[in-house]
Amino acid sequence: MAQTEAMSELKQQALVDINEANNEKELQDVKVKYLGKKGSVTGLMKHMKDLPKEEKPAYGQQVNEVRQTIEQEIEERQTVLAKEKLDKQLESETIDVTLPSRRIDIGAKHPLTRTVEEIEDLFLGLGYEIVDGYEVEEDYYNFEALNLPKSHPARDMQDSFYITDEILMRTHTSPVQARTMEKRNGQGPVKIICPGKVYRRDSDDATHSHQFTQIEGLVVDKGIKMSDLKGTLALLAKQLFGEDREIRLRPSYFPFTEPSVEVDVSCFKCNGKGCNVCKQTGWIEILGAGMVHPNVLRMAGFDPEVYSGFAFGLGPDRIAMLKYGIEDIRHFYTNDVRFLNQFKAVEDRGEI
Ligand code: DAH
């Protein structure tokens, strides 16, 4: 028996619907429409009961053929749709490995950090320890233990931020000297440098900042002489400003050293002839130093009859300004990336 007209129409329509289904959901709907419990093919089966007995098997077979054809077409369409979906996904997730990568901006060392580390490296190589101190310090260690009693006029040299009568923001890194010596119970040797931030009630201008950086140095042992200080500082000057540099000591005054000196280095720009960097003098002042005052040794528990020492205090801000030709100390602390990026550029070129 041939398929009834209704049957072949239904099959044609089903094939059209299957081909028009553009995704799995639509295809599922088509499946339900034809093959579901209330679907059209299932509906054809229901006519069976109205047919004469001898036509039933053939009719049943015809309906089954229609069902099988539809099932098969759905399956094929499903494979096609799945492949389309995968192709689309692969296309959208394609990575072009030949594209140049995005540049990752990595930072560079701050010029001050660079200067401090350069100085640290030198002293570590000479067997010094690096010691940290407190930025919020007791008046005792900031002044008294450094031979600056309460009434001492030299306290005015360092206008301070007081927090209470006895506590202040340290005005220099020298208190680390006193604290470190005190911990050693009168036993040398002590060989330390102490880098860190210090604070003074200065008005900020091109050469002053209320917060700046210092590095303190201290050596205490038996038989330490002024010549040891001089040799050490000569080495430092060469490290920072070049092999040909010389130093010059001028008498000065600090309450915690006796004798005290200001230390100048021969100008790295004009080699001592006189230029704008050294203000035509041929020399640039870089630090203060001296032999540790017997009172300072005694207060920290060292016997000045047995031990002697030298100390120095230098400002990495000024050193970095000189080295890199920076005209305003505030650039170090305002952290404008345009300023900082210049150091990155010269680092990239391998110039520093
Ligand atoms: N503390 C001094 C200052 O801030 C610098 C200094 C000078 C430190 C001489 C020293 C020294 O240890 O011996 O001005």
Automatic annotation (TrEMBL):
Q: Which organism is it from?
A: Staphylococcus auricularis
Determine if Cell cycle is one of this entry's keywords.
no
Cofactor(s) the record lists: Mg(2+)
The record's section on SUPFAM superfamilies has: Class II aaRS and biotin synthetases, tRNA-binding arm
- Name of the featured protein: Phenylalanine--tRNA ligase alpha subunit
Name its cellular compartments: Cytoplasm
What keyword terms does UniProt attach to this protein? Aminoacyl-tRNA synthetase, ATP-binding, Cytoplasm, Ligase, Magnesium, Metal-binding, Nucleotide-binding, Protein biosynthesis
Q: Is-annotated flag, keyword rRNA processing?
A: no
